[in-house]
């Protein structure tokens, strides 16, 4: 035997064993190289769960659910399972990772040999999802493509040409170029239609097609051909791709001479830096008090929630703690600095869409009587996840601990039922937010009642209950507004308005957003066109009805009803106009002017918010 023939198989075996060791499966030997990555992936998931999950786990149950996942994926009602490796009626007795691997390998190879048309990659994905379903609603599998999108979103930037776009009548339409990005610097404008990319027609592209063609590595070039409204000839641009920031501050602006407003849409890698930049800008404009809007903010990085919370407190203030069955995940976090906003009055806005990191920030502010929390009870996600990469660049997100507010409140709501029941629990809350909070408080046992630093009652067991409850504005029927949004009439109306009057509008208002916000209104001809567009999508003006009716997908209103409700639509269209002309940040000042009952009520509460400081100076309790 030659040296080469002797060494080659030994080297191959060494590489396989090395891969197994790197995957954290050092005590299991892969017996069959067939579909090795899939089998490794299965083992990686089980090891990560067993080694890191915050609660008790059963490897027997994890394995059983993986086999159930296989059977469900095959979806064959005539399939005979008895005495096969995928027989789910048998008693499972899995004692360790080795047992689990060997049994899963048998099931996997049985399917591969007997069902040759089965997508084995998808089979393993389904098995993993089925395993994770035995844990909690936030321990999940993430496919490779989705992993890339999530990483991009929370990294705070991507690489591309820098536009916000929509597909309108099969054509890529620029909503707005991202400020400072490559497209903005070249003069690409809102309303431009991209008809070709790299000499190939772009008509009929899907959103995924656009992302695939226009995103790319920094420094690479893409050629686009654009039709601009009221220009007879196409325009050609060569755009050099660059880093494009994804901002997490939707808007910051001065509401009046001393009240600043900052809306955070999620907590990503850049959020704290963005927040400090917004605070600095508002302080230069005279900000003396702050509205922090965390409504519909689903959370994100724990580190960013801690960093922003620190800005409201002096050094040494307890922000949050985490607890797990693994001691390495237990921690108690205190502010490491004197925050830049530690003496500024603050009101925090929350609702049922505020979760996780949003609840950390609002919980710390409430527990220390640092400011008022206003709105509706938050979602109730008090679980901390760690993401682990798998062999094929997919990931799993595993809950490693639960977090507690400074007073000791567990914010996580129960998840004993199905994942669907958990996710849509907010739909079952009372439409009267004050009633929901009242019922919730009445149901909370004494063990879940806590005190703030100033001695006020606060509650654990399912989200942050605001200090001041403000329910959604239900005084106006949403029918007309909902029809407009579903059919995207506001977007199409604004797009047509700018196609026709864009140059004239920009000449009058382009450098005067403040004037636009206070003085612009739709003309009679604009209103007539809007009514015509609404009729085209199902609005019928009729007589003889006492309230709005839906009949055969048509919305029936009297003229009086329409005139009473149209202000909501006009206000939202004005905000959409601001978005398409000045950018996304300018949407919120306008929409808040017209349709934000919670913000309106919050602005009446500054005296109460400022007096909370007195409670902290003479506390009845102590929270560190």
Structural category: alpha+beta
- Kindly provide the name of the CATH class of the largest domain: Alpha Beta
Quote the CATH topology of the largest domain.
2-enoyl-CoA Hydratase, Chain A, domain 1
Strand content: 15-25%
Total count of helical runs of at least 4 residues: 21
CATH level-four homologous superfamily name of the largest domain: 2-enoyl-CoA Hydratase, Chain A, domain 1
Q: Can you tell me the number of structural domains?
A: 4
SSE blueprint:
Elements: H1 3-22, H2 36-52, H3 59-74, H4 97-114, H5 120-132, E1 140-142, H6 144-155, E2 157-160, E3 163-168, E4 171-177, H7 182-186, E5 193-197, E6 200-201, H8 207-214, E7 221-227, E8 235-240, E9 242-245, E10 249-254, E11 259-264, H9 271-284, E12 289-293, H10 302-310, E13 318-323, E14 331-334, E15 346-350, H11 357-367, E16 372-375, E17 383-389, E18 395-404, H12 419-423, H13 433-443, E19 449-451, E20 457-459, E21 468-469, H14 479-486, H15 489-509, H16 513-519, H17 524-536, E22 539-541, E23 549-551, E24 554-557, H18 559-582, H19 587-594, H20 597-602, H21 606-617
Parallel strand pairs: 11-12, 12-15, 15-16, 16-21, 22-24
Antiparallel strand pairs: 1-18, 2-9, 3-4, 4-5, 5-6, 5-7, 7-8, 10-11, 13-14, 13-18, 17-18, 19-20, 23-24
Helix pairs in contact: 2-4, 2-5, 3-4, 3-5, 10-11, 15-17, 15-18, 18-19
Quick recap:
The protein is α+β, with helices and mostly antiparallel strands. It has four domains: 11-135, no CATH class; 157-245, PDZ domain (Pdz3 Domain); 249-473 and 612-617, 2-enoyl-CoA Hydratase, Chain A, domain 1 (Alpha-Beta Complex), CATH 3.90.226.10; 479-594, no CATH class. Helix content is 41%, strand content 18%.
